[in-house]
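It would be a great kindness if you could assist me with a short task in structural biology. I am sending you one protein, given as its amino acid sequence and as whole-number tokens for its backbone shapes. I would ask you to consider whether the tokens describe a fold that such a sequence might reasonably adopt. The full record is reproduced below for your convenience.
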Amino acid sequence: MAAAVAITRLELDAAGLRLEARRSRDPHAARRMLALALVLEGASRTDAARAAGMDRQTLRDWVHRYNAEGLAGLHDRHGGGTPCLLTPEQECAVMRWVDEGPDLARDGVTRWRRADLARAIERHFGVVMAERSVGDMLRRLGLRRLVPRPRHPGHDAAAQASFSATSPPS
């Protein structure tokens, strides 16, 4: 049988760990602090782990992290996610394209769709992006999908303005 893992970081005793668990806004970290408090009070690893709702081996791993990093080591670590495919300069260029709108002769489209932008990004930067990724990038850049209200071909702005000027207020 392997030797029990000892808690070597002794800035906080069991009462201090319980106090920090009470103050913590992270329930998972608080549960881990309470398990460590039980170990410091002399409970076996099996009993402390069972009381905290984890396996004995998991408690051992948390003891190692606590010894190495202190209370900060008891909080969950979250990955950074997928890195951006385009550099910030390239994203600014795409934003400029969207602001200026497409050129029919150059881009072959009359309005930008995500699929069109994905093709243009691949053509200009050599980066293959899915339509969904293009949409996520546009949303991150603060752009929204706006569809203008259709305008009748016979629309006359001058007639509309004169009608508004002569109509009595409601």
About this structure: The two ends are 89 Å apart (CA to CA). The mean pLDDT is 89. Residues 11 and 91 are 47 Å apart (CA to CA). Residues 88-140 form one domain.
